Amino acid sequence: MEKRKYVSIKPSYAIEDEAGKLTEYNYGDTISHLGHRLSMRRNPTYRENPNSTVFVSFQERTSLADGLRNALSMAQTHEFGGVLELSLNDNIAQRAQDILNVLVVKYIQAGLEDKNTQWRNSISFLNERLALINQELAVAKNDVAEFRSKNLISADASDNVQEIITRSSGLMQAEASISTELEVVNGVYNYIVNNKNLYELVPSTVGIPDASLSELIATHNGLIRERINKLQVGTEQDPIVQGLNVAIANSRQNLITNIRNLKQAIQTRLDAARKSLQANQVEAANMPLKELKLFNLEKEARVKDEITNFLLQKREEAELSVASNTSDARVLDPALNQGQVKPVRSQIILFSILIGLIIPTVLLIIFEIFNNTIGDRAEIEASTSAPIIGEIVYKQADDPLVVTPKSRSAISEQFRLVRTNLKYLSVDSPIKCVTSTSFMSGEGKSFFSINLAAAVSLVKERVLLIELDLRKPRVSRYLGFDNKVGLSNYLIGSETDLSKAILKVPGYNNFDMLPSGPTPPNPSELILSKKMEEAMAWIQANYDFVIIDTSPIGLVTDALLLDKFSDFTFFIVRHKYTYRSTLTFIEKIYEEQKFKNLGIVVNGIKTGAGENYGYGYGYGYGYGYGYGYGHYGNSKNSSGYYMEEERKKGFIARVLGIFGL
User: Which residues lie across from 572 on neighbouring strands?
Assistant: First the structure.
């Protein structure tokens, strides 16, 4: 577990324990804390703040080593070159430099130590043999000295004895050399056979002139070194390590067989040398008894002395090899600070650009997949054969009347265009009465009716706008009129003079409005009544143009009932609001001729960024309009004449709204 504590920087420092108690210590003191022994020393180059604290972290060694190993990388500078480049990514450049420098030093030391291990094993073996031979030599020399002293034999012997001793010395030296060689071979053999660790390096064959054995030992030790290196980065279950285990076992068996054969060859040579020495000893046997015994004692001492000199020479050679060994690796350049490598500014900029492009694109695709509302004009024309009479852009405003005598805005010109189109719809039978309906609330039929009436009134025709949405009237409230008296009063007989219910719209000379009046319990029956026919007959006799704002046809059938009074019906759809399924409904009623004449008006067209709706008739206005069209239902927001509750947005629509989509 990682444990963290705060240490205060002062002339002395304090450590907080688990209970919150502070204990002060002097710099340089060795303390025990949280199971660790540590000593704090001040850095003279660090500018201390007496009021600051230092954050100390105790980390588990294995996890820390894993983190450093993951940050370390190694690569060849050239494919077939012998130069390796090490790099370490760290937040602190100096720490990375120190770690790399120490790592390289340890690597070189480990390589040199690996090369010297074999020679050190040989030196250890020679030291053991020298200790034993020295003891035997001391005993032999002591026996010679005691014999001479007891028998009063001088150091000078007879010429015959000297000749025999000289000859014997050469023979004994040859025997000693062969015996030493045999002992070394026996030592190596016993080392291999008796050593329980099969993966320990075999001592060097110092003093053995056999080249084949030296080569076998070198190959065997090479396999052991390779296994040691593989285990530093792998486990015993590694297939490579298991393969090396088999190779080492086979090599060991070859060594044992070779050493056995070599022992037999050396033993044959030793037997021959001993036979020659024995012949010389037979000659020496004819010497006087005391000289003969002295001869034997001196012979033994001379043999021990020769062996000792031989082993000392070989040990010196081994020690010289250890001292002269050098590492196969060397440092070309110490660790250098290469500056900031992460994060790469160009990569972050490129990544940000890609994210900035990909996320909006993906969101737009998702939005388009789940979008089931009307998009562009081509989609409408492909779904229904009903003609498009007009297209009205989206505009946010506080006044419902966007068409005024002096207005020259794009949206007012679009209403004038609809007014003009009406004159071309029926040349032989001019249109005098139109109905405005939609499939559901919120598509802007009341807004359209109000402004179409205003546009027609500007050509000096007497226009009456009838609020015939008897269930949930909106026109009178939008225009600021009181709806206490209206058409429903006349239809039920409480008002006999219809003209008294008609109101004049301020600012327009030829624009009148007939409110719906109090909401009746039976709107459909009133529309079908005789009084309704009388009312429409009087209205058409007194006005040049009549616009009926009726209920949504997707909710009730009032619009169908009023078709007998109307010359043309406007079906209002709203861009990015009306469902695509509505177009199928329009096509059905158009084919079945539920209305005498039917045309579509596309309302609320959003022409901002990302919108591809192309509205035409020669108008290319580039205004960023926004307009909130009314809903069919009671308002929950009265800040503006038509700011009514929107259809509740789904989750995707709310998410896209965050991005302004």
Answer: 438, 601
Distance (Å, rounded) from C-alpha 398 to C-alpha 642?
8
Q: What is the mean pLDDT of the chain?
A: 78
Helix (H), strand (E) at residue 55: strand 53-58
Helices (H) and strands (E) in the chain, counts: 17, 16
Q: How many CA atoms lie within 13 A of 92 on its CB side?
A: 5
CA dist 610 and 38 (Å) reads 65
φ, ψ of residue 536 to 5 degrees: the values are -70, -35
- How many alpha carbons lie under 13 Å from residue 513 in its C-beta half-sphere? 29
Q: Strand, coil or helix: what is 152?
A: coil
Which amino acid makes up residue 80?
F
The whole-angstrom separation of Cα 172 and Cα 177 is 8
Instruction: Estimate the share of the chain in helix, then strand, then coil, as percent rounded to the nearest 5.
Output: 50, 15, 35
Read off the pLDDT of residues 312-329 as tens digits, 9 standing for 90 and up.
Answer: 887 877 777 777 666 767
Could you tell me the strand order of the sheet in which 511-514 lies? Answer: 388-393, 598-605, 568-574, 433-438, 545-549, 463-467, 511-514, 503-504
| DSSP per-residue string spanning 214-234 | HHHHHHHHHHHHHHHHHHTTS
Beta carbons of 32 and 21 less than 8 angstroms apart: no
Q: Which tens digits make up the pLDDT trace of 425-449?
A: 766 788 899 999 999 888 889 999 9
- The whole-angstrom separation of Cα 9 and Cα 3 is 19
Give the position of tokens 């980390």: 59
With a cut of 50, say whether residue 85 has pLDDT above it.
yes
CB contact at 8 A, 184 and 259: no
Chain mean position to CA 610: 32
Question: Do β-strands 22-25 and 13-16 pair in parallel, antiparallel, or remain unpaired?
Answer: antiparallel
Place of tokens 């190993």: 69
pLDDT 10s digits, 128-183: 878 888 888 788 778 777 776 776 555 555 455 556 666 676 777 777 778 877 87
How far, in Å, CA of 408 to CA of 414, rounded? 10
Q: Is 604 left (phi over 0), alpha (psi -120 to 50) or beta?
A: left
Element containing residue 141 per DSSP (H, E): helix 93-151
User: d(Cα 23, Cα 440) in Å, to the nearest integer?
Assistant: 77
CA distance 362 to 509: 54
Closest CA to 403 of 394, 391, 413: 413
CB of 25 closer than 8 Å to CB of 15: yes
For residue 129, the model assigns a pLDDT of: 78
Mean pLDDT value of segment 507-514: 92
Which H helix or E strand runs over 305? helix 289-324
